[in-house]
Specification:
Radius of gyration: 35 Å
Low-confidence stretches: 1-50, 286-291
Mean pLDDT: 79
Length: 379
């Protein structure tokens, strides 16, 4: 099979089980066989970009998974379970989305997200994919990945695609299927990086927007809409904004690595110019900004100390309350026992039997007999 359309014509009367279990029958085997035949060839520039994405994007997904969800699934973000971190199912994804015959595979991540505070669902699987070049059958391939994930995890599958190519008209988001009355419509959300507003991305506090802005400027350079010289200032601005954010330092370091790796200079002199400016920027951070950095660290340490002290004080207060209750209960019980013993002594002196005393006081007879023994021992 070398053509999806010819395959439909040739095999439309063949019936094979459809993995998605939508009570339909179609030619699933044709989908898989047709993928390589219909993929568009990559230019050297596009291949270079795709290779960069393949090496850099997975790390961004892992480091910024929470920020990714905050941006693209804001309705889900408040319900993330803080006690159960997001899991990355790389092995499961590799089994469901094997490499094609030419060795290419998608730049994607499968995230297992735990939620709290919602009735249903409690777990959602998010398939995030970065597509760096136009692929004629991408919508079809994305659907195949979806129904394999659907079959594997039995529902609760969310899909999001980020297009990082430079073709303004390439925005697949729907897969249609129609064969002899059997119809299917599959749609998925996407983000076209070159359509984003760079100013809005730059002013965002979400670190995933920083990654998108990095990709945006790389696309603009690829289209020669910004010069290699302009890229120096843009890249320094990205670094400056990133270093100024009060977030996890490991995330900042790895995002700096992403910016350095993805935005590259053609001219050696511009690379040297950037490195010089970046050295000046980091020296400023180290020297001129040392007080601010120390104050920030001191503030963070103070906040941690305050939180720890509050937890310790709360635990101590709870312990003191528990001990006070136990002590008061013990004292009250001791007083009850004393009064009971005095009552038994007085009634015994009046000639009441143990059985009669137990009946009058409403105590078990063996308890009264035990008190008799204590009173005899005191004589």
């Amino acid at each position: 099979v070398t053509s999806f359309d010819l395959a439909i014509t040739a095999h439309c009367l063949c019936v094979t089980s459809f993995d998605l279990a939508l009570t339909v029958h179609c030619l699933c085997v044709t989908f898989d066989l047709a993928l390589t035949a219909r993929a568009l060839p990559l230019t050297r520039q596009a291949m270079f970009s795709a290779d960069l994405l393949k090496s850099l994007a997975p790390t961004v997904f892992e480091d910024l998974a929470v920020e990714f969800i905050q941006k693209f699934y804001p309705e889900m973000y408040p319900y993330l379970d803080p006690k159960r971190p997001i899991e990355f199912l790389d092995k499961e994804l590799a089994q469901l989305t094997p490499e094609s015959e030419d060795g290419k595979r998608a730049v994607d991540k499968l995230m297992k997200v735990y939620l709290v505070g919602m009735i249903e669902p409690r777990i959602i699987y998010i398939h995030g994919e970065v597509q760096g070049y136009p692929e004629k059958v991408f919508d079809e391939r994305n659907f195949i990945y979806f129904y394999r994930l659907f079959d594997r995890f039995k529902g609760n599958i969310a899909v999001n695609v980020i297009y990082t190519d430079d073709n303004p008209n390439y925005k697949p988001s729907v897969f249609n299927y129609n064969c002899m009355g059997t119809k299917l419509l599959y749609s998925f959300p996407f983000c076209k990086v070159m359509d984003q507003d760079p100013e809005q991305l730059a002013n965002s506090e979400n670190l995933f927007d920083t990654a998108l802005l990095t990709t945006y400027w790389a696309i603009q350079r690829k289209k020669n809409l910004v010069s290699d010289e302009d890229l120096v200032g843009l890249k320094i601005d990205l670094m400056r904004r990133l270093l100024s954010k009060n977030v996890d330092k490991n995330k900042i370091r790895r995002l700096c690595d992403f910016i350095n790796g993805y935005i590259r200079f053609e001219k050696p002199e511009n690379k040297l110019n950037f490195e010089k400016k970046f050295d000046e920027l980091t020296k400023f951070e180290k020297n001129m900004g040392i007080t601010e950095i120390l104050l920030r660290q001191a503030h963070e340490e103070a906040q941690e100390s305050i939180a720890k002290a509050q937890e310790e004080a709360k635990a101590k207060a709870q312990q003191d309350i528990a001990e006070a209750k136990a002590e008061a209960k013990a004292e009250a019980q001791e007083e009850v026992n004393k009064e009971r013993k005095n009552a038994v002594r007085n009634m015994r002196q009046l000639g009441f039997s143990a059985e009669k005393i137990a009946d009058i006081l409403g105590h078990p007879q063996n308890l009264v007999l035990a008190l008799f023994k204590e009173l005899d021992a005191e004589k």
